[in-house]
Design goal:
single chain; 86 residues; mainly alpha; elongated
């Protein structure tokens, strides 16, 4: 893990891309209301991950940040799969 700053950027970029993908897919299908739940879930995921990054009382920081990075990958993959099923 290079830095906390880069982890925060990764979270922002990845979930931002997921939201953009959801908007694009729902616009192509002309059904924007179907993507709203996925976009809300992406925003909730963003908030939860940033809150975990900013946690101060962490014993093993390296393992903590590695777990956050893995959670980001897992959640982003799940969101993209949901979008693909629309």
């Amino acid at each position: 893990m290079a830095s906390i700053k880069n982890l925060k950027k990764d979270i922002n970029y990845v979930l931002g891309d997921v939201i953009e993908y959801a908007l694009d897919v729902t616009a192509l299908k002309n059904e924007p209301q179907k993507g709203d739940a996925i976009i809300d879930e992406a925003i909730e995921t963003f908030d939860a991950l940033i809150e975990k990054v900013n946690a101060k009382n962490v014993e093993n920081k390296k393992a903590h940040f590695k777990a956050i990075n893995q959670e980001l990958e897992d959640k982003a993959k799940a969101l993209v799969e949901k979008i693909s099923k629309l």
